[in-house]
Specification:
alpha+beta
Length: 222
C-alpha cells in the first residue's frame, strides 16, 4: 500500500536533524524503550478503512520536557477521516490516532516548568517548541523544531509542526485517542483547564494555536 510504502521510503532516506524524539507513533516494536511496561487501550490505524481499539503499551517519559497525560476526554476531528480513507501517506499499522484531547497530568519530566501533576490540561493538536523563528512570530504551526520529515520538505518546500496522531508525515507522534499519551515539550503544548470547565468544553480548545488566525479571517471575510 502506498500509504505505508511512503513511510518505508522515508525510513530508508532518513530524517533531517531531529530536535525531539519523533516516530513514536505507538509504544511497541522498535519503540519498546518508550513504554512503561504497563498496558492501556488505544485506537490504532490498521489500514485503509480500518481502525481498532487494542491493548498497547503505556508511554513513559523519554525526554526531559515530556509530560504523560491521562486522557479524560478526546474526540474525532473531521480531518481524521483522511487517515481512515488512506488519503494521507506515511501511516504505519498500529499508529495511535487522535489530535484533540485533554486530561490529567500523571507525570512530568525534570525539565518541565509550570505544569503540575494532577492538573487538568488540554493539549494543542500541533507540537511547537516556542523558541524557533516561526514560534516567536506566533506562527507555531510552522515550528521548525518538531517535524524533521524529509519527504514533507521535498513535497512542499517546508514542513508543518509535528501533529499528534496524524501520520509520520507530521512527525509520527502517538495521538490522544488512548488512555494515556506522551506530550513532548509539555510546558509549551498544554493549556490549563479551570476546574469549572468540563472536558466537553475544554476539548474544543485543542486547536487553540489557530484561534488568532480564525478570528483574523472571520473579520476580514465579513
Amino acid at each position: 500500500m502506498a500509504v505505508q510504502g511512503a513511510y518505508a521510503l522515508e525510513k530508508a532516506i532518513g530524517h533531517d536533524t531531529e530536535h525531539i524524539q519523533q516516530d513514536v507513533s505507538s509504544y511497541t516494536g522498535a519503540n519498546e524503550h518508550v513504554s512503561s511496561g504497563e498496558t492501556m487501550k488505544a485506537l490504532v490505524w490498521q489500514g485503509k478503512q480500518k481502525v481498532e481499539v487494542v491493548d498497547v503499551p503505556k508511554p513513559k517519559i523519554i525526554e526531559d520536557r515530556d509530560v504523560i497525560l491521562k486522557v479524560t476526554g478526546t474526540t474525532v476531528c473531521g480531518s481524521d477521516l483522511h487517515l481512515l480513507h488512506g488519503d494521507v501517506v506515511q501511516m504505519k499499522k498500529g499508529d495511535i490516532l487522535g489530535h484533540e484531547f485533554c486530561g490529567v497530568v500523571e507525570s512530568v519530566g525534570k525539565g518541565v516548568k509550570g505544569v503540575k501533576v494532577g492538573g487538568r490540561y488540554v493539549a494543542s493538536f500541533q507540537i511547537a517548541c516556542g523558541e524557533c523563528f516561526f514560534c516567536k512570530q506566533k506562527l507555531s504551526s510552522q515550528c521548525e523544531m518538531t517535524n524533521s520529515n524529509t519527504m514533507t520538505k521535498a513535497m512542499y518546500g517546508g514542513r508543518t509542526a509535528g501533529i499528534f496522531g496524524y501520520s509520520h508525515l507530521t512527525g509520527g507522534f502517538a495521538g490522544g485517542q488512548a488512555e494515556y499519551v506522551r506530550v513532548p515539550l509539555g510546558d509549551v503544548n498544554l493549556l490549563a483547564i479551570p476546574d469549572d470547565v468540563p472536558d466537553e468544553k475544554g476539548i474544543p480548545l485543542s486547536p487553540f494555536p489557530l484561534f488568532p488566525f480564525s478570528i483574523f479571517f472571520a473579520v476580514h471575510l465579513n
